[in-house]
Design a protein that fits this description.
By secondary structure, this protein is an alpha+beta fold. It has one domain. 40% of the residues lie in helices and 21% in strands. The protein contains 2 helices and 5 strands; from the N terminus they run ααβββββ. It has a 5-stranded antiparallel beta sheet, covered by helices on one side. A hairpin with a 3-residue loop joins β4 and β5. The protein is elongated, with a radius of gyration of 23 Å. The protein starts with 6 loop residues before the first helix and ends in an 8-residue tail after the last strand.
């Protein structure tokens, strides 16, 4: 008498594993995208607080370059984010002495996030449900 599994039994096990994977993988991707979106919002809030703190310390004048935030001791911002991709989002600044806008756009609308985020003067965070990945 031979011991072991038949081809049919092995195929049934493989089919069950494939079914479980088909159920689990989309949920994992959705969870990852949600985490990336939350990280992007938190990063924008951090950048906004740094810019607003700079403005408070400089008579209401906002920084005109990211180095105004990162190049001082102690720095207002510990890391440069302009043009950097982190957690699937690319950040871009528009800085002027009278205000600012910082955007976070997903690098892939199907894998890293479905929303773009913007924080502007005064720390106003807004969401754009239309996914527009960065051009470069």
């Amino acid at each position: 008498m031979r011991k072991g599994f038949t081809l049919v039994e092995i195929m049934i096990v493989v089919a069950i594993i494939a079914l479980l994977a088909a159920i689990a993988i989309p949920n994992l991707l959705r969870s990852r995208m949600t985490a990336n979106e939350s990280a992007a919002q938190a990063t924008l809030r951090t950048i906004s607080v740094a810019i607003e703190t700079y403005a408070s310390a400089n008579g209401g004048t906002y920084p005109t370059a990211e180095t105004d935030l990162t190049g001082v001791t102690p720095p207002y911002l510990n890391k440069a984010y302009d043009g950097v991709t982190e957690s699937g989002y690319k950040y871009a600044y528009t800085l002027a002495a009278t205000g600012y806008t910082v955007t976070a756009r997903p690098t892939s609308c199907t894998m890293t996030g479905t929303k773009s985020f913007t924080v502007s003067t005064g720390g106003v965070l807004s969401t754009d449900a239309t996914c527009t990945p960065p051009t470069s």
